[in-house]
Amino acid sequence: MNPTRHRIHFVDATQMRPVPDASVHLTVTSPPYPMIQMWDEMFSGRSRSVRRALDRGDGAAAFESMHRQLDPVWAEVHRVLAPGGFACINIGDATRSVGDRFALYPNHVRILQRLQEIGFTPLPCILWRKQTNSPNKFLGSGMLPAGAYVTLEHEYILIARKGAKRGFANAEEKRRRRQSALFWEERNRLFSDVWFDLKGTPQSLPGSDARVRSGAFPLTLAYRLISMYSAYGDTVLDPFAGTGTTTAAAAAAARNSIGIEIDASLGPAIADSVGQVPARSHHMTRQRLSEHLDFLERRNDAEKACRHTHRTYGFPVVTAQETDLLLQVAERVDGSVEHGLTAQHRVLSPEEVRSFPTSVPS
């Protein structure tokens, strides 16, 4: 397989001039969340109107001022996406008291509205039920009626497409698409509108000169979205690269990537994320294989035969679209965050699959 290339640009996400028009196939990102206090100083430092609104207790004005700082980023994402490309945006709503009023600030609604205005086609979103939140937490006066508020225990993964469905015009693109297929049972699990099985990621950055906390999502979340909405060799963009989660997930999944990050002091954290790519890539690819083999055992026990056989690996699959699927792993990552990274990949061999420690039904 061809190596994949990964570049981080330490520039403002509202001015992604290093990224050419229509050069990206997928965006996976999580911006700073408006009206979450850890981001107040960042938003206030870029617009005095945010601080003035918060100081006078005008939550609605502060909310809108913060989103106006994000709006140009979504316009840039639309510019750099190829026709048919997807934008996947992880965002949580905020609850907060500003002045003497407690309110919900619906970040996902405001971003969806802006995406539609730009020209994106919104698609069904995913609710990420975060296991880090405790169900016994509440806000307000507890047991007394009409005094408590529902606790937010989920975030959104907004999904939008630029234009019509993507076309795979030539033989090479069609081949890469088939090699990037999901298993039937994997597709059924991932393309659900509620994800219960992903834990949040620790937000501290110990030993870093960068900001005290990050806004990182789990690498598995980015890896899933990349597998769902792109093919091997595609280019994935993260305009809020942060600690490099999307970069690492793209490298692990044999895609190219571009990261945009305004804070150059996060370079060491990005390097650390990328350094873990080979181990994480092997783990996630072998987990996919293990889950498929477990599925085949259960299906065999239920006497439901699979009608198709994988061309390379010889195990049963449910659909003809899975017969050319290839399982890839990242072997190493060369280069540096400053000058660009290159990931080398290889395809698991039939011998490796046959020796995997799970029995394969005939």
What does this structure look like?
This protein is α/β, with parallel strands linked by helices and 362 residues long. It has one domain (4-281): Rossmann fold. Helices cover 34% and strands 24% of the residues. It contains eleven helices and 16 strands. The protein has a ten-stranded mixed beta sheet. A two-stranded antiparallel sheet has the order 4-5. Strands 7-8 form a two-stranded antiparallel ribbon. The radius of gyration is 22 Å and the shape is globular. Mean pLDDT is 91; it is low at 206-213.
Please outline the helices and strands.
Blueprint lengths: L3 E6 L14 E6 L10 H7 L1 H8 L3 H22 E11 L2 E5 L2 E5 L1 H12 L1 E10 L9 E2 L7 E2 L4 E9 L8 H9 L4 H7 L3 E2 L23 H11 L5 E4 L6 H8 L3 E5 L6 H9 L1 H25 L6 E2 L6 E2 L10 E9 L3 E8 L2 H5 L8
Parallel strand pairs: 1-12, 2-3, 2-11, 6-10, 11-12
Antiparallel strand pairs: 1-16, 3-9, 4-5, 6-9, 7-8, 13-14, 15-16
Helix pairs in contact: 1-2, 2-3, 3-4, 7-8, 8-9, 8-10
Features:
two-stranded antiparallel ribbon; 362 residues; ten-stranded mixed sheet; Rossmann fold; alpha/beta
Briefly, what CATH class? Alpha Beta
Question: Can you list the strand order of the major beta sheet?
Answer: 10-6-9-3-2-11-12-1-16-15
Name the structural class: alpha/beta
Average pLDDT taken over every residue: 91
In N-to-C order, the SSE pattern is EEHHHEEEHEEEEHHEHEHEHHEEEEH
Can you tell me the number of structural domains? 1
**How many separate helices?**
11
Q: Report the β-strand fraction as a percent range.
A: 15-25%
Low-pLDDT stretches: 206-213
Helicity, as a percent range? 25-40%
Largest sheet: 10 strands, mixed
**CATH architecture classification name:** 3-Layer(aba) Sandwich
Q: Give the number of DSSP strands.
A: 16
CATH topology: Rossmann fold
